[in-house]
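re: ur question from yesterday

yeah so i grabbed the chain u mentioned. its 151 aa long if i counted rite. heres the sequnce exactly as i have it in my notes:
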Amino acid sequence: MRVRKPSKFTKWLTTAVVLTSVAVVAPVVTAAPASAGAYGCDGNLVYSKSVNANRSGLTGKIGTVYSYYDGTYNCSVFVKSVYVGTPTNLDLSIYKENDGTFDRDHGAFSSYAGPVEIKAPGSCVSEMLIMESPGGTLMFFGEAAPPHNCG
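ran it thru and got these structure tokens back, copy pasting raw so excuse formatting
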């Protein structure tokens, strides 16, 4: 019998289900202040993408993914543009496309999630995101940034 390796989305979905089931009892955590505009990431800004709501009939921009690269590590953050100053449940992951390894930050954040970083020279990276409103309505679920920085 051949055993199939779970896909990146299957792994991420499993993680999301676990987060959602414990989110009700998770303590409120606020984001640390940004450092030098890079939110704790080293390197140069290599990619940014506006993220629009994609769930619960909601539309419009909810934030921006910023991705930095220092020659070895990719580092990403998601900066909210809605409910800034109010803790909302966020789950941000960065994935190394060629082998599915990832780093994750999750909790209730007031301004941004991350940094998340992964050693990925020679591989594309992508970011996955879950965001809820302060009332718990799912605002975004899925790939926040397609594969990028493929070098």
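noticed a couple things. Residues 8-148 form one domain. also The first strand starts at residue 44 and ends at 52.
anyway ttyl
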